[in-house]
Amino acid sequence: MSNPLKKTMVYLGLADEEEVYEEPAPVSRKASTQVAEKTGTVTPLHRPAVVRQPAVGTVSEILTVHPKQYRDAQVIAENFRDGIPVIINLSQMSDADARRLVDFASGLSLGLYGRIERVTSKVFLLSPEHVAVSGDGAVAQADPESVPFAQ
């Protein structure tokens, strides 16, 4: 038993001493095509030729959502992905679900290069990349860890 990984796994109880781990032999390209020929044709994954991009221009719609449960996040994600600004009012949610939804919305806005801003303690604005938001004074990004909810 000269493999340090094996020794560690045995020590932690993740493996038995008598088990032998063998790595599969590398399969050559010729062998893999022979297997494919024997089993049938391989269908490649088809990806959409055009990736849907939100229209850059004037904003003609803003969606306001009053989620009651975390599963309402799908509506928020679908509309934000389409380039529609979303106002989320968390006043009808429990504190735990509201924090979870703010975490989700923060990741969504980060992943799609948008912004999330706190309007009040339980109202947030998700604005896509192509939408500029202006207001009175400095606008701070919402930090999910610092969101104060009524206790």
TrEMBL record:
PANTHER family tied to this protein: CELL DIVISION PROTEIN SEPF
Keyword field contains Acetylation: no
InterPro entries attached to this UniProt entry: Cell_div_SepF, Cell_div_SepF/SepF-rel, SepF-like_sf
Job description of the protein: Cell division protein that is part of the divisome complex and is recruited early to the Z-ring. Probably stimulates Z-ring formation, perhaps through the cross-linking of FtsZ protofilaments. Its function overlaps with FtsA.
Gene: sepF
Protein name stated in the entry: Cell division protein SepF
GO biological process: one example: cell division
Annotated Gene3D superfamilies: SepF-like protein (3.30.110.150)
Protein family: Belongs to the SepF family.
SUBUNIT field: Homodimer. Interacts with FtsZ.
Keywords attached to this entry: Cell cycle, Cell division, Cytoplasm, Septation
Record flagged with keyword Cell division: yes
Cellular localisation: Cytoplasm
